[in-house]
Amino acid sequence: MNDKQPQLTGKDQWVVFKRLLGYLKPHKKVIAIALLLLILTVTGDILGPYLIKTYMDDFLTPRYFPTGPLLGLALGYIFIQVGNVIVSYFQLLTFQKLALKIIQQMRIDVFSKVHKLGMRYFDKTPAGSIVSRVTNDTEAIKDMFVSVLVGFVQSGFLVIGVYIAMFILNVKLALVTTILLPILAIIILTYRKYSSVVYQDLRERLSQLNAKLAESLQGMTMIQAFRQEDRLQDEFNEINDSHWKAGRRNIKLDSLLLRPAIDLVYALAIIMVLSYFGITSMNNIVEVGVIYAFVTYIDRFFEPINQVMQRLSIFQQAIVAASRVFKLLDETDLAPKQQNVETAKIEQGKIEFQNITFSYDGKTDVLKNISFTAEPGQTVALVGHTGSGKSSIINLLMRFYEFEQGDIKIDGHSVKDFKSAEMRDKVGLVLQDPFLFYGDIESNIRLHASDMKDSAVQEAAEFVQANNFIEKLPNAYKQKVTERGSTFSSGQRQLVAFARTIATNPKILVLDEATANIDTETEVAIQSSLEKMRKGRTTIAIAHRLSTIQDAELILVLHHGEIVERGTHQELLNQKGLYHKMYLLQNNVVEDIA
């Protein structure tokens, strides 16, 4: 998927920035304290040069050195400098804590949003791109809150304070220096305009790098098995080269419009100030302290401007990153919404598909007018070639995707009516490739259900005969499970998934070729367990091996999204249709398949 977004205009950036500021609202008291401390530090920065100016003009120039006033002036200066250090520490600490708290909340919002998105979103979005938004992009936003926002506010107060001090010292010269403000504004606006394009491209390239890396890590077995290392390396190098080029454009822009441009304006300001005092000194006496104070204030004025420009780079990255994060937070492709009808309960387990037609992309129907009924306690098997629509039926029953045409009912209620908790508690799912979470075997069976006793976990494992291998492990049920359960065999992972499903005592079982990854010996051993699991439960089972579903009360044969045959195993064999051909193929009988 192309992760590219439309270019951000100045208006778009302002909208994103205001939305970021919205995260400050719950912390008004902390902000007030931080701003008060900031005002104190800025006041100290302004008063320091003024005290030196007073010393130079009132005492040093006229060679007047009274002990008391000089001592008071010295102590005042020392008090201001020491006080500034202490107040600055607490001010920065307060702002940093606030920034980290905000970014913590943002990451919670993003992580929560990801879990609310529908399967359609994950179908069209690479996992690496999502990871990039949750990690890299939020990290860029954190940098803005931690350093940029604090720096901007501090610099803003300092610039205002410096201008006030300059106007107090010399109104005319202060007015002359305002000529520099439009020049600085032009530099900042120019940088913001071009840097947003560069940073947006940079973030997109980084996202593509993450996506390619995630794909490579997930498919490493196949990459090595089919010797695709060189091809993947070339593809990664191409993206990495694009990222490098984008980074180089960023460096060129920063090198031109950040400190060098501001230093040039600073030099112009010093020339203006010294020229002004040089001209006025021809007719009037110029106080040395005023010159010192003005030059110092000019330096104090441009230092925060320089800091702002340096941080503007981080700010632009954060705005682009925030736009990507907000795009995810605003994603409307959510998981299907339930109506939460209080009276909707799954008690019998009767399932009815009524004229269901469904498409993933809105163009091609993968299911066409699907209708069937699974009576309570019955097993309905779905068979057919790859792409016939078997998994799509399960996806709709489990509410992974929303459907518009037709309806699916359980015990007379539409699946849209049930609470999510009711569906998840009463409908058990076992997939062909089970997913195990990092932790231990017990937590993977319990799935952190605090009300499930240890005895219930063990009973579930015994029920599906998973206890045979679990109890042989060094730590039994406390045996560590690494990422995706990679240290266990496919069959062992499947047995844990069986135990996980039966532990919740569901009313409906959904089996997606649940014995595909289990060896023949283990499969034979758990067939009796499956029969016990199915007793009293309605079962929908996808099967590729027809031998596993011969006792099903109803077998549906799908072809290109339609039910082309239905009946019991023997009835379908007698029809001599598609099912009959599939059966002969699987049993190595070829004479009747013409």
Residues in β-strands, percent: 5-15%
Q: Tell me about the biggest sheet? A: 6 strands, mixed
Biggest sheet strand line-up:
6-9-10-3-11-12
| Number of helical regions | 20
Q: Can you tell me the CATH architecture of the largest domain?
A: Up-down Bundle
Shape: elongated
At CATH level 3, the topology of the largest domain is ABC transporter transmembrane region fold
Number of domains: 2
How far is the first residue's CA from the last residue's CA?
43 Å
Helix content: 55-70%
Low-confidence stretches: 590-594
CATH class placement of the largest domain: Mainly Alpha
Rg calculated over all Cα atoms: 35 Å
What structural class do helix, strand and pairing data support?
A: alpha/beta
Q: What value does the average pLDDT take?
A: 78
Can you tell me the CATH superfamily of the largest domain?
A: ABC transporter type 1, transmembrane domain
Report the count of strand segments.
12
Domain ABC transmembrane type-1: 32-317
Transmembrane segments: 30-52, 72-95, 145-167, 173-191, 256-279
Domain ABC transporter: 351-585
Pfam families: ABC_membrane, ABC_tran
Name its key features.
single chain; about 600 residues; alpha/beta; ABC transporter transmembrane region fold; Rossmann fold; four-stranded antiparallel sheet; 20 helices; 12 strands; about 60% helix; about 10% strand; transmembrane
What topology emerges from the helices and strands here?
Blueprint lengths: L9 H12 L6 H33 L6 H50 L2 H6 L2 H43 L1 H7 L2 H39 L1 H6 L3 H29 L1 H22 L7 H42 L21 E9 L5 E10 L4 E6 L5 H8 L7 E6 L2 E2 L5 H7 E4 L8 E2 H6 L7 H10 L3 H4 L9 E2 L8 H14 L4 E5 L7 H15 L3 E5 L11 E6 L2 E6 L1 H7 L2 H9 L8
Parallel strand pairs: 3-10, 3-11, 6-9, 9-10
Antiparallel strand pairs: 1-2, 1-4, 4-5, 7-8, 11-12
